[in-house]
Amino acid sequence: MKRNKRQLKLMEIINNHDVETQGELIELLQTAGFSVTQATISRDINDLGITKIIAPNRRYKYVCPKEEKEDLTNKYNSLFKQAVVEVKSAQNIIVIKTIIGSANSAAAFIDNLNISEIVGTLAGDDTIFLVVENEQVAVNVKKKLNSYLQ
Fold first, then answer.
1. Residue 57 phi, psi (nearest 5)
2. Extended strands (E) in the chain
3. Which backbone phi and psi does 63 adopt, to 5 degrees?
4. Contact 7, 44 (CB under 8 A)
């Protein structure tokens, strides 16, 4: 569980920051509350298929693989399953509880599903709010999200 939570955060950091070194990754993960070593980061990078590319500023940065989108989607789905604790709906709002520190990554997975019925997504530390058009749509989207937890 700890490993999956850390890997969720690692992917979130890489997707939201231009990170050039493993040292920067360690600092950002430690800031997020994860105690990690360089060896751990190296294993996670290998497990997740993370690579480096040359950015427009001609510096290297870590990126999640794009050509292996299906594999990455499967990993995100696996991490989503590990992170989500509960999915509830109330009228046109869906509330998703996650393990602490995983809401942003789980919300990124949901956003990448491109569910057209979702009007907006808001993620905190361990809670995600999804707004949909009405109560019936909320029931349908909740079922769809729960299918990814199977």
1. -80, 10
2. 51-54, 60-63, 84-90, 93-98, 118-123, 127-132
3. -140, 150
4. yes
What is the tens place of the pLDDT at every residue in 24-79? 999 999 998 999 999 999 999 988 889 998 888 888 999 987 645 556 567 778 88
**Averaged pLDDT of the chain:** 88
Instruction: Give the C-alpha separation, 70 to 73, whole Å.
Output: 5
User: Cα 101 from chain centroid?
Assistant: 10
120 three-class SS: strand
117 vs 130: CA distance, rounded Å: 10
111 in Cβ contact with 119 (< 8 Å): no
